[in-house]
Write a structure and sequence with these properties.
77% helix, 160 residues, mainly alpha
């Protein structure tokens, strides 16, 4: 918290008073990251393009987003909140926005809503793993292929 406070020119106690504990601060940062991700993903969707091509564009945009700021992105998945603390409604809403973009893009390809929900979760998790391995430079241990090529292979094969 001290490093965060110093970087924005505030005292740590001011942040605690305004936002709450460290978990709340991280959730607020994560919500802003999700909003930025939503904007980045929205920008690549073309309603005139085929759904499969939009899905590939989303995968590309996701990897670009992650690569641009991997440390902030990693907070989304690496910070663990207290196990007895449920996620606030506002955070669930922030997470739902980029996920709904993917759902909307996949709707013409996967008509059943429950199957599509599961497909979105599977693709999101797979792309997260690919992005995580890429940003940690561990992907090169598995393959010399660029992450973009692997993401396109994954999404393309998944969607048929």
């Amino acid at each position: 918290m001290r490093r965060l406070a110093a970087s924005i020119g505030y005292a740590p106690n001011s942040i605690y008073n305004a936002v709450g504990d460290l978990d709340q601060v991280v959730l607020r940062v994560n919500a802003r990251t999700l909003a930025r991700l939503h904007t980045a993903l929205s920008a690549v969707i073309d309603p005139e393009r085929a759904a499969r091509d939009n899905a590939l564009a989303l995968a590309d945009a996701y990897l670009v987003f992650v690569a641009a700021d991997p440390r902030v992105w990693s907070l989304l998945f690496e910070h663990l909140v207290a196990p007895d603390q449920p996620f606030p409604d506002w955070y669930a809403a922030a997470l739902a926005e980029p996920v709904m973009l993917v759902d909307t893009v996949l709707a013409p390809l996967i008509v059943l809503a429950d199957e599509r929900r599961r497909a979105v979760a599977a693709l999101w998790a797979a792309l997260h793993g690919l992005a995580s391995l890429s940003t940690s430079r561990k992907l090169a241990v598995l393959t010399p292929d660029p992450p973009r090529d692997l993401a396109r292979l994954l999404v393309g094969r998944f969607l048929g």
